[in-house]
Backbone:
């Protein structure tokens, strides 16, 4: 029986998320599976991956093939690197301590990269909010200036009208006397 690590689609149209499963290759994509080892949600930024690392590593070690997308996920999570390092230890190419050091260095580097992306996304969101607030302030100032200008024009027009009425009243008063 050939075993494959692959994705099983769930969710609604244009908003899918996936379960990472180990299944017989003859089983349908969303059908029966042997074991569910994680989930993958591409709708978040960065995409969220929950993977049972030990079970995934165990399945890779017994020869489970993976689909291209599942392979990328396993590589991203470090399952394939750990399998490679364990193979090197088994062959005697490197010691367990060297293997663990390489693994921890890679893990720290990957975690730093993820944190950098999250912080850059957060900073860009903050900058976008500041820019939107500045634009809104500029628009509000322009509106206030236009309202003040219109109010000044109305006041000037009323003053001119009152002065015209006063001068007309003064001209009419001496003519009557």
Residues:
């Amino acid at each position: 029986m050939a075993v494959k690590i692959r994705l099983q689609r769930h969710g609604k149209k244009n908003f899918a998320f996936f379960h990472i499963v180990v299944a017989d290759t003859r089983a349908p994509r969303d059908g029966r599976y042997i074991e569910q080892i994680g989930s993958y949600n591409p709708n978040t930024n960065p995409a969220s991956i929950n993977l049972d690392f030990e079970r995934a590593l165990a399945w890779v070690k017994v020869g489970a093939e993976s689909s291209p997308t599942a392979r990328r996920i396993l590589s991203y999570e470090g399952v394939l690197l750990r399998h490679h390092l364990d193979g090197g230890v088994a062959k005697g190419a490197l010691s367990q301590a060297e293997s663990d050091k390489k693994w921890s260095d890679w893990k720290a580097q990957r975690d730093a990269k993820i944190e950098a992306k999250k912080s850059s996304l957060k900073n860009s969101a903050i900058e976008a909010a500041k820019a939107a607030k500045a634009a809104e302030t500029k628009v509000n100032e322009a509106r206030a200036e236009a309202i003040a200008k219109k109010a000044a024009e109305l006041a000037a027009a009323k003053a001119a009208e009152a002065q015209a009425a006063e001068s007309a009243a003064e001209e009419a008063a001496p003519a009557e006397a």
